[in-house]
Amino acid sequence: ERREGWTWLLAMVLLNPCLVLIDHGHFQYNCISLGLTLGAIAGILSRNELVAAALFSLAINHKQMSMYFAPAFFGHLLGKCLKRKYPIVEIMKLGFVVLGTFALVWWPYLHSYEAAMQVISRLAPFERASQVTK
Q1: What pLDDT is stored for residue 74 in this prediction?
Q2: For the chain, what is the domain count?
Q3: Which residues have a Cβ under 8 Å from the Cβ of 90 and sit 6 or more positions away?
Q4: Domain residues for 58?
Q5: Which residue would you say has higher pLDDT here, 112 or 24?
Q6: Which of the listed ranges 18-22, 87-91, 108-112, 129-133 does the model predict with the highest average pLDDT?
Q7: Percentage of the chain surpassing pLDDT 90?
Q8: What pTM does this model have?
Q9: How far apart are CA 119 and CA 134, in angstroms?
Q10: Which tens digits make up the pLDDT trace of 64-93?
Q11: CA nearest 71: which of 79, 82, 63, 83?
Q12: 64 with 123: CB under 8 angstroms?
């Protein structure tokens, strides 16, 4: 009985007309980064902070919209690390996971300076903003 309720709830979330029509129809794919963020929250709730850090790093790399949640994730994970027996080791583990995840995602673009700058210019198109103001 309870499992049927979860199945129905999952179907309602995945088939949400707002996500299907607006998000996918407008080619935004926000639900991917939101799903990764929810996975990171699940990692925190299950006390697996390293998985949470990796999933949230993937969410940030998928869409910078996830940066809205970064202060909360950072504060919570740092606070949990500081309460442990060896806080410096815990912070280093967390940092290694975050930097490792970013390195894996960015690896294909780091073969040249031009390739990395092309990706960054598409992520933060400041040239467009300066053209609008002129």
Answers
A1: 94
A2: 1
A3: 80, 81, 84
A4: 33-133
A5: 112
A6: 87-91
A7: 45
A8: 0.75
A9: 24
A10: 888 899 999 999 999 999 999 999 999 999
A11: 79
A12: yes
What distance in Å separates the CA atoms of residue 89 and residue 96, rounded to the nearest whole number?
Answer: 10
CB 34 within 8 A of CB 75: no
Q: How far apart are CA 76 and CA 59, in angstroms?
A: 17
Residue 44 domain flag: yes
Total number of residues shown for the chain? 134
CA angle 86, 89, 43 (to 5 degrees): 95
Tell whether 16 is covered by a domain: no
Where helices occur in the chain by DSSP H, the ranges are 2-14, 17, 30-45, 49-62, 70-82, 87-106, 113-123, 126-133
In a domain, 95, yes or no: yes
Tokens found for residue 105: 């995602």
Integer Cα distance of 15 and 28 in angstroms: 16
Residue 17 included in any domain: no
